Amino acid sequence: MEQKEDKLKEVISHAKEYGFVFPSSEIYDGLAATYDYGQLGSELKNNIKSYWWKAMVQMHENIVGIDAAIFMHPTTWKASGHVDAFNDPLIDNKDSKKRYRADVLIEEHIEKIRQKIDKEVEKGQKKFGPSFDEEQFRNTNPNVLRNLDKIKSIEDRMRETLENNDLEGVYNLIVDLEIACPISGSKNWTEVRQFNLMFSTELGSVAGDAATIYLRPETAQGIFVNFLNVQKSGRMKIPFGIAQIGKAFRNEIVARQFIFRMREFEQMEMQFFCRPGEEMKWYEYWKETRAKWHKALGLGDNLYRFHDHIKLAHYANAACDIEFDFPMGFKELEGIHSRTDFDLKQHEYHSGKKLQYFDPELNQNYVPYVVETSVGLDRMFLAVLSSAFKNEKLEDGSERAVLSIPPALAPYKVAIMPLTKKDGLPEKAREIIDELKFDFQCQYDEKDSIGKRYRRQDAIGTPYSVTVDHQTLEDNTITIRDRDTMEQIRISVDQLHSMIDQKVNMKTLLKN
Length: 512
Ligand code: GAP
Prior knowledge:
Layout: H1 2-17, E1 21-23, E2 35-37, H2 39-58, E3 63-66, H3 75-79, H4 82-85, E4 87-92, E5 99-101, H5 102-128, H6 134-140, H7 142-163, H8 167-176, E6 193-196, E7 200-203, E8 211-214, H9 220-224, H10 227-233, E9 240-249, E10 264-274, H11 279-295, E11 304-308, E12 318-326, E13 329-340, H12 342-351, E14 357-359, E15 364-366, E16 369-376, H13 377-388, E17 389-393, E18 399-403, E19 414-418, H14 425-436, E20 442-444, H15 450-460, E21 464-468, H16 470-475, E22 477-482, E23 488-492, H17 493-504, H18 506-511
Parallel strand pairs: 3-9, 19-20, 19-21
Antiparallel strand pairs: 1-2, 4-5, 4-6, 7-8, 9-10, 10-16, 11-12, 12-13, 13-16, 14-15, 17-18, 21-22, 22-23
């Protein structure tokens, strides 16, 4: 665990040093849980957005994208249930004065029991060697079974108390499990209280004339209120989806762990409208499709797992998370929710407008059911950055920091470097960039030795580095170096475009 925490610290400092992520308004000592994306960070972020948009909108005939306003009519949030039910149960430790989400404290306790089970399995593996049958071991080992029982009974109690809004019950569970504050180590807790996560502000400048409006806590409602506009203007037939990328805001109680949990963040959401009764089929379809999208990046299949929700949100009849093995352990990366007809029906009720679809095949009007996929852009960024970051020991004993970012997402695709600053080499390098820059983000670099320049490109994840030398002027060939293998080969300048394209084209990811 300590190693993992160190890894997060290293990632944070690397991200700052190379212009990926800066603390917001740092000259004023920053603002808690708010970050700015720097010159390389915004390139990486744009590439992730583009990978999502192409996969969801461009690759699906029946999905279209929109860009709704952040401010919405205040009744939207009454209808969606966020005014009354978008709460987190919070608890304070009286000694450390630290505030926690009560459900997260319990989830973390459960995770510790899961880790005990994994240790028991590891012990079994060592003891029985190659003949070890993990499934049988998990189904029969008394220690594993006892711990699984414990998890089940905690989860049952947690579900029941949270669903019944029984805050005293949640408090009692924390006390019974003897959960201690990670900072003070004490079990001296306050009662559990509900805390609404929406930020509010005022619209209108005349005193008394102002209306309270909210910064949207999810982008989804911008899609629901436009359901009929899009369906009619785009002549969309069910099943179809509406996608959107945009900012969302939540007054998180515990905002920490870098860009994992922020108060201002970005979501990439898609609402898929289908026939009532067909939602579970589409729920399974989108679970599988979204897992494939993640795994196509090649960060490592073992870094993902599904987690079914214990407590369903007020709008869902089935929900799960795709979790990622971040430096802090497995945590939610994306949510997939079967939202029923809750949102559209609520908006019908509060607006007095019909939000129905006429299904020509059934010759029937109905309010569609919705399956939602919702992934945090910033969490995707952290998943890519943290899994790509490595400190490698090289054969000659030296070290290099390298970001093995999937080439299609890398901020720069190629760095062009003249061997020296004279003899016409810089001019030739710029001539090559002038050809490539229409298709690829290129960087020109002439400072320091070639070795140092390679290290710099490794550290920012540039898949290819190209060196222009005196031979280039004679026979139009260059040396191209691969970031991951560090191998160098000599090829003609004419082959450069297709070689880079093959490596960095997003098409390969999308085909996967
Ligand atoms: N429309 C459904 C919805 O908003 P959610 O599970 O609350 O569902 C979806 O959020 C995704 O948004 C999460 O899986 C996560 O990736 C991202 N997300 C949520 N809160 C976040 C925060 N405070 N900071 C960064 N990302 C966040």
